[in-house]
């Protein structure tokens, strides 16, 4: 998984030595894995008997953990775990500048780079609404510093422009996109589980909260999401940037 073989840390190092909470954190933050806690706990139990030596071994193990609970999908169940490990091994969020500079060198003059990133939390009700409901029953941690790793690391358009400009790109454009997305799955309880155990600031806050508040938080978030239930699932507004830029010399 190392993009650069000079990197000392490997995915095996992470899987076989990191604490359970740290594994859960990267699976959640970098992979948006809805079963992050359960997968991390299972990995720690397994490695105490036998370490993970190959990617295939880990992939088959995560597949077994997730499908035991009936999680079935056309996407390999281990995909999000491997995504999280790849990002952690290669410091991808920290090395965005280097990555864009490498893309700049690889592109022909006038070549285009494009990606999508979230706009600020305040513009994304699918994460803001459950966070507000949870705040009624527990103390929320301080918000992350601007640009800190996480879903809103690139929410500030000026920061994104600055990174692309420093990497040498021209014609930088950020187009706002507003849409609705299906949260978590087919039903209300699946959406609540996704937001409390999987992705976003509510799940991050709940991990360090008193376990006694979890039933109250679950009930409050469920009530807050109920108005968004549709025949297609829980559908909520979301806001993102579509970012495009061209290589210099176009």
Summarize the structure.
The chain has 250 residues and is α+β, with helices and mostly antiparallel strands. 48% of the residues lie in helices and 15% in strands. A hairpin with a 2-residue loop joins strand 3 and strand 4 (233-247).
Helical proportion, percent range: 40-55%
Total domains, how many? 2
What is the CATH architecture annotation of the largest domain? 3-Layer(aba) Sandwich
As a whole number of angstroms, the C-alpha radius of gyration is 20 Å
Structural class: alpha+beta
Top-tier CATH class of the largest domain: Alpha Beta
Strand percentage: 15-25%
Q: How many extended strands?
A: 4
Low-confidence stretches: none
- Mean pLDDT, all residues: 86
Number of helices: 11
Largest beta-sheet details:
4 strands, antiparallel
Question: If you had to describe this structure to a student in words, what would you say it looks like?
Answer:
This protein is an alpha+beta fold. The protein contains eleven helices and four strands, in the order ααααααβααβαααββ. It has helices at residues 11-17, 20-29, 36-49, 55-68, 79-90, 96-106, 125-134, 157-167, 188-197, 200-207, 214-225, and strands at residues 112-118, 169-182, 229-230, 233-247. Strands 1, 2, 3 and 4 form a four-stranded antiparallel sheet that branches. Strand 3 and strand 4 form a beta hairpin. Helix 3 (36-49) packs across helix 4 (55-68).
């Amino acid at each position: 998984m190392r993009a650069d073989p000079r990197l000392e840390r490997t995915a095996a190092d992470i899987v076989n030595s990191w604490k359970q909470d740290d594994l859960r954190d990267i699976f959640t933050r970098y992979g948006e894995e809805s079963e992050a806690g359960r997968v991390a706990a299972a990995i720690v139990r397994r490695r105490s008997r036998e370490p993970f030596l190959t990617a295939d071994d880990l992939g088959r193990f995560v597949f077994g953990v997730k499908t035991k609970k009936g999680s079935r999908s056309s996407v390999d169940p281990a995909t999000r775990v491997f995504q999280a490990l790849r990002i952690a091994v290669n410091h991808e969020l920290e090395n965005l500048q280097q990555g864009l500079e490498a893309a700049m060198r690889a592109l022909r003059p006038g070549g285009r780079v494009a990606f999508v990133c979230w706009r600020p939390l305040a513009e994304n009700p699918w994460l803001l609404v459950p966070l507000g409901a949870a705040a009624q029953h527990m103390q929320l941690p301080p918000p992350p510093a601007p640009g800190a790793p996480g879903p809103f690391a690139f929410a500030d358009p000026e920061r994104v422009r600055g990174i692309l400009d420093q990497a040498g790109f021209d014609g930088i454009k950020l187009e706002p996109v507003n849409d609705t997305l299906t949260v978590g799955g087919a039903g209300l309880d699946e959406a609540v589980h996704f937001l409390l155990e999987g992705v976003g600031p509510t799940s991050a806050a709940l991990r360090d909260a008193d376990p006694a508040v979890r039933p109250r938080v679950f009930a409050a978030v469920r009530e807050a999401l109920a108005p968004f239930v549709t025949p297609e699932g829980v559908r909520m507004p979301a806001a993102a940037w579509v970012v495009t830029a061209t290589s210099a010399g176009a």
